[in-house]
Amino acid sequence: MAVDVSGTLLAFDDTDSPEGMCTTYLAALMVEELDDLDLIGLPRLVRLDPNVPWKTRGNAAICLQFGKGSGRSRLCGSIQGREVRCYGNGRSVDPEELLGRASRVLERVAQFDCDKTNPGIIASKRRPAQGLYWGAVREVVQLRHVENLLGDCGAEWKKYKSGRGVIGAAAAMSWRPRDRTWEIIAYRNPRRFGKPRQIDAKSVVVMDKATRFTFNNYDYESGHIAITPGSPCPILFGIRGDSSAELLRAKDMIKGEKPHRWLLFMTNQGTDDHISRRRIRSLRPMDSALIEAKVVSPPVTIPGKHVILRVTDGDEIDAAFYEPSHRFRDVGRALLPGDAVTLYGSVRDDRMTLNVEKIRVKKLVRDVRKVHNPVCKRCDKSMGSMGAGQGYRCKRCGAKAAESAAMSRTYPRSIKSGWFEPPVASRRHLHKPLRRMSRANIDNL
Predict the structure, then answer these.
(1) Domain 3-176 classified CATH 3.30.70.2200?
(2) Per-residue pLDDT tens digits of the chain, which is 445 residues long
(3) Treating both helix axes as pointing N-terminal to C-terminal, what angle do 165-174 and 131-138 enclose, rounded to 10 degrees?
(4) Count of CB atoms within 10 A of residue 415's CB?
(5) Pairing assessment for the beta strands 261-267 and 288-295 based on DSSP bridges
(6) pTM exceeds 0.85
(7) Rounded distance between C-alpha atoms, residue 168 and residue 338, angstroms
(8) 20 to 30 A Cα–Cα from 317, which one of 83, 108, 200, 435?
(9) What is the fold, at CATH topology level, of the domain defined by 276-364+413-429?
């Protein structure tokens, strides 16, 4: 069901490429170019299905709301030293006119030369049904279906090349948060695009330790600064958290290269919105899922140093802890057949393997190992095995003994029950870090 809003929605997606640009940067350019209009509410940065193979980088779409603001405003950005403020309410503007003006900005900067870049842009006074967001964050959505929904809510839109960006733009427009976080993104001076970023690592660590509600700032395992991207895009840094007020302070703690622009976004990052509870038999390639399972067989380290576990909930699947997750693989290595686990992960698109993104170890079995075959009571000699599960027999006198007669020892487990996640540098944008999962609710998940 479409929902009316104050102001006019403007959403766009698929304008960047692995070589440059950033869809969030286009948001800053839109605010700068449309400076005769007011922002209504915070800009929205919406991450969609992380498994689609045609994504350019982080699969982010943007939704802004423009109009004539009324009431109180709040600081939400800066462009070349000029404050950007947003209003809680406002009057809408003509969607067709807004689309025309915004399209010219997009056409000037979008990376049309990239095969994967297929921009789309939409203007509307109504939000599409929220089911569109939940579809696009968890699975593949067809463009024809999206265009039908946009037509139903009276939207105006424009698509370029294949027009696939219309899907992400419409999904961002339809998002009604159940959970939300915020991100403050600082952008570089255009004269520095493509040059090495100058960020003081010590200041990032100081900020991380001084703030209560930020997350995914710094990877202490690898020494990686996680707030800076690795691509030659316009972003200088992005800080994520559960408090927009704290992010405004955190931004000023970062030392080094000075931002040319910055914007504060409301986002779905760190929410696990891409995850749905599933049975193994229902999984398909590119699904993201939570499954309750037991370990079937001992872990195996394969070439590439990936750790593979076989798990079951009645049906079986391989669960993979990949090499880039570093010490997170030790969790997989420590599990034994019979251990009960909750796995969060994504199914590969080329074979049915679950890439583990987070795990809860719910119950551990005892690690009992045979240390010696039983000794024959008649001959005082070690007995031989008759085969797996068939017991033992004395080679001299033929006496038999049960499997349980072997001498065994219980070893301490190297892992305890609880939650485990990969290091910061190996987490996806939508991954909900344990830092966000409250003590009150974590044991009920």
Answers:
(1) yes
(2) 676 677 899 999 999 987 888 999 999 999 999 999 999 999 999 999 999 887 777 789 999 999 999 999 999 999 999 999 999 999 999 999 999 999 999 999 999 998 889 999 999 999 999 999 999 999 999 999 999 999 999 999 999 999 999 999 999 999 999 999 999 999 999 999 989 999 999 999 999 999 999 999 999 999 999 999 988 899 999 999 999 999 999 999 999 999 999 999 999 999 999 999 999 999 999 999 999 999 999 999 998 899 999 999 999 999 999 998 989 999 999 999 999 999 999 998 778 899 999 999 999 999 998 899 999 989 999 999 988 889 999 999 889 999 888 889 999 999 999 999 999 999 999 999 999 986 334 444 4
(3) 130
(4) 16
(5) unpaired
(6) yes
(7) 42
(8) 435
(9) OB fold (Dihydrolipoamide Acetyltransferase, E2P) (2.40.50)
Residue spans per domain, the chain? 3-176, 182-267, 276-364+413-429, 367-411
Classify 436 in phi/psi space as left (phi over 0), alpha (psi -120 to 50) or beta: alpha
Name the amino acid, one letter, at 49.
D
- Domain 182-267 top-level CATH class: alpha beta
Q: Look at the alpha carbons of 150, 155, 156, 157 in this order and tell me if their dihedral is positive or negative.
A: negative
The label of the residue with tokens 């991207």 reads 229
The residue type at 249: R
Burial of 312 from C-beta contacts in 10 A (0-12 / 13-18 / 19+): middle
Residues 12/101, Cβ–Cβ less than 8 Å: no
Q: How many other CB atoms are there within 10 angstroms of residue 414's CB atom?
A: 11
Given phi > 0 = left and psi -120 to 50 = alpha, else beta, which region is 418? Answer: left
Measured distance between the N- and C-terminal CA atoms of the chain, rounded to whole angstroms: 30
Alpha helices in 262-418 (DSSP H): 329-333
DSSP string, 339-365: -EEEEEEEE-SSSSEEEEEEEEEEE--
Identical fold between 3-176 and 182-267? no
* Residue with token string 């090349």: 161
Cβ neighbour number for residue 11 with a 10 Å cutoff? 31
Compute the CA torsion angle 99, 105, 108, 110 (nearest 10 deg): -80
From 3, 58, 69, 4, select the one nearest 31 (Cα to Cα).
Answer: 69
CB atoms within 10 A of CB 276: 15
Q: Pull the structure tokens for residue 41.
A: 């509410």
- Which residue's structure tokens are 């090495």? 196
| Count of Cβ atoms closer than 10 Å to residue 408 Cβ | 12
Half-sphere exposure of 156 toward its Cβ, with a 13 Å CA cutoff? Answer: 16
